[in-house]
Amino acid sequence: MALSLKMADNKESHVLRDEVRSNSLLNAILPIDVILETQNTMMATHFSKSPYWQSLLIIGQSQVQRNGLLFQAALTHASSDKQIMYVMTKEFTRIPPTTHSLPNVETGNMANITFKYCQEMKSLEELLIGFCTIPNELLPDVLVVNGLNEYKRGKGPLSQFHYSSILSLLSETAEYIGRRKKTTIMLYVSLSLLLALTVEEQKPWIELFKQWTHEVWILEGNSNRLVSGNIHIQFTVLGSNIFLRTVSKID
């Protein structure tokens, strides 16, 4: 059954209660037990419909939230003995918050996560291209790239062309690794758009990202809400814990 309720903006919302497993990569981040129809119409490339990879992108201003959500994805997959490569520009100053009831920071999980630090976009590109020379048994099962906007390329912010280039390389790399390992590689990416962009100005950027990513989720301000299309997921961050509150479909 779906529980109907009214939102503050008078749009009707349905809290999803169907007890079926989610087909979204988000279920590695939050304990979601409903089917989420979030598949984007991606750019028609030879690898976009390949079964060898699946991807999720989180866009939001809050670094704490982005760090916590992507770190949880790494922990969840690591708990299943998957090998994770976690790429970011610098080390965490503190352990990000993790999701209540999902795998947490344990020695066994952390042993399956390899952290790589790249200050510039060129270093990230070299890291990805370098997978061509790595033996199959050393290739990751899950690739996480945190804060894509933080990788420097020149003095100015990344352009749409730059984002298209790196997301294309990330997509092709994940598909390439999956094909070599004969499995489905999971790719998780986060980034933050310029604060100066209005909601309308953000739309063409988001549409661009959808061409290169299976799922795109927007972190709305400081509201602790993830949005993809008409799906709204509310969560709470309390200290070192993230708690799932509701999964709603806005009509």
Automatic annotation (TrEMBL):
Entry GO CC: Shu complex
One GO molecular-function entry: single-stranded DNA binding
BP GO annotations: double-strand break repair via homologous recombination
Name by which UniProt lists this protein: Uncharacterized protein
Protein's organism: Daphnia pulex (Water flea)
High-level lineage: Eukaryota, Metazoa, Ecdysozoa, Arthropoda, Crustacea
